[in-house]
């Protein structure tokens, strides 16, 4: 399912004139397939389940790198999301945030590539956890809490009149991640239920004011 979504997004990404660049050439979907295959091949059993690689370096030939360079940032984001979706489908866990980098490698021939994967701990050895914002961007939770509200110094600043200045906080509590309402006027909801404090699970929706955020451990 994750790769199907990835292929659909890539089709839109390379639609029109860009799609001509991949006729008979290396296509980004091939890289996505290799990334998920690395996860399947190198998964291992851990205390909390099957641990999969979360760090990937894609090695491209000089000519292929040049063709990909114009939309490299978008490609990296899509590859990272494909890895997360594959992990959710296969019930893999990550020990740190998912990262993908694409590098030029003179050892690679045109149309050929390599993917080097690794299992890398998160900041300070913390497990992977992040908040996905409405625009699709992602805020990784490190040792410090994520603050949410209208105050400019908040980690996540929301320009939402239904949001309090200091509305909510997402922080680590041992191995758990909890969301805490900070006495907001309109409350904080998790999966539709109003909460004061709640342990978050992968995929939970956190509603602050009228803004929907998604919590992910994958």
Structure, described:
This protein is α+β, with helices and mostly antiparallel strands and 218 residues long. It is 24% helix and 32% strand. It contains four helices and 17 strands. A six-stranded antiparallel beta sheet has the order 8-7-17-16-13-14, with no helix packed on it. A five-stranded mixed beta sheet has the order 10-9-11-12-15, with no helix packed on it. Strands 1-2-4 form a three-stranded mixed beta sheet. A hairpin with a 5-residue loop joins strand 7 and strand 8. The mean pLDDT is 89.
Key terms:
218 residues; 5-stranded mixed β-sheet; 24% helix
Low-confidence stretches: none
What proportion of the residues form beta strands (DSSP E)?
A: 25-35%
Order of SSEs, N→C? HHEEEHHEEEEEEEEEEEEEE
Q: Largest sheet, if any?
A: 6 strands, antiparallel
Strand order of the largest sheet: 8-7-17-16-13-14
- Anisotropy-based shape: elongated
In total, how many beta strands? Answer: 17
User: End-to-end span in angstroms?
Assistant: 15 Å
The helix-and-strand class reads alpha+beta
Question: What's the topology here?
Answer:
Elements (H helix, E strand, L loop, with lengths): L1 H12 L14 H15 L1 E3 L2 E3 L3 E6 L1 H7 L3 H19 L1 E2 L5 E6 L8 E6 L11 E3 L5 E3 L5 E4 L6 E2 L10 E6 L2 E6 L6 E3 L2 E3 L1 E3 L5 E4 L2 E6 L2
Parallel strand pairs: 2-4, 3-5, 9-10
Antiparallel strand pairs: 1-2, 3-6, 7-8, 7-17, 9-11, 11-12, 12-15, 13-14, 13-16, 16-17
């Amino acid at each position: 399912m994750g790769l199907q979504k990835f292929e659909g997004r890539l089709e839109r990404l390379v639609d029109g004139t860009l799609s001509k660049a991949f006729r008979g050439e290396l296509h980004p979907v091939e890289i996505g397939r290799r990334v998920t295959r690395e996860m399947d091949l190198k998964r291992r059993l851990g205390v909390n389940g099957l641990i999969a690689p979360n760090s990937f370096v894609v090695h491209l030939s000089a000519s292929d790198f040049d063709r990909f360079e114009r939309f490299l940032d978008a490609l990296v984001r899509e590859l990272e999301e494909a890895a997360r979706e594959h992990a959710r489908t296969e019930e893999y866990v990550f020990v740190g945030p998912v990262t993908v980098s694409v590098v030029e490698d003179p050892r690679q021939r045109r149309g050929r590539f390599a993917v080097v994967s690794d299992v890398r701990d998160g900041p300070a050895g913390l497990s992977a956890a992040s908040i996905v914002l409405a625009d699709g961007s992602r805020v990784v939770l490190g040792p410090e809490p994520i603050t949410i509200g209208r105050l400019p110094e908040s980690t996540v600043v929301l320009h939402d009149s239904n949001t309090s200045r200091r509305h909510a906080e997402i922080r680590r509590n041992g191995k758990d991640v909890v969301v805490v309402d900070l006495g907001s006027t309109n409350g904080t909801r998790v999966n539709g239920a109003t909460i004061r404090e709640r342990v978050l699970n992968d995929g939970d929706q956190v509603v602050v004011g009228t803004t929907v955020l998604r919590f992910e451990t994958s």
